[in-house]
Amino acid sequence: MHSSVALHRQCLLYYNDVPEPLYLCPNGAHCPTWFQDPTCFTGTMDAFVNIVRHKGTRTFWRSLPVTLVMTVPATTIYFTAYHQIKSFLCGRSLTSDLFAPMVAGTLTCLGQPRGAHEDKAAGSAHAPFSALYWFSYELVKSWLNGLMPKDQSSVGMSFVAGGISGKVATVLTLPFDLVKTQGQVTLGAMEAMRVKSLHVDSTWLLLRRIRA
Questions:
Q1: Which ranges in the chain belong to alpha helices (H)?
Q2: 122-135 pLDDT tens trace
Q3: pLDDT digits (tens, 9 = 90+) for 32-43
């Protein structure tokens, strides 16, 4: 379900509770085809079908080189930093072995470089996800280690633990992720309109608004 609403003289399309800006073509017929003909998808499968039909299958991997350049170093730094911080915390007995993954995951996430939008809006979701993910991962992996024979490969256990912890963290942080997305969209709209004072409502205010 979606509807449009005017906010600060800009038309926004609410789709799945997330406001998306509706860009109007200033040059009429001189605008590119995609600008003249915006597409609304009814669901995930409809999006896949229409993208393949109009843009081709290669469209899904068009930005792969740029994504790899950005993701591979960030992921390498993230996992390395997590294990180093966790070993430091456990080695110095700064926290218990049970909560060391949660603290290490939070510190690692907070240490990652982020853009202006994420600095203001993403903190409500990224750090809690990382904390819950690593806490669940280490807990599930330790539990599986007690069930499996000692000569059993740890690859399968890591795979299962990662899947379970990812689901747990996603379910618990998804409401805050929606708040983060709305905050980022609002900031982007305000910057596009060149609003001098960029201010986004607090997390709890956005949560109450979504609930209402």
A1: 33-36, 44-55, 64-91, 100-110, 116-121, 126-147, 154-192, 203-211
A2: 444 688 899 999 99
A3: 444 444 456 778
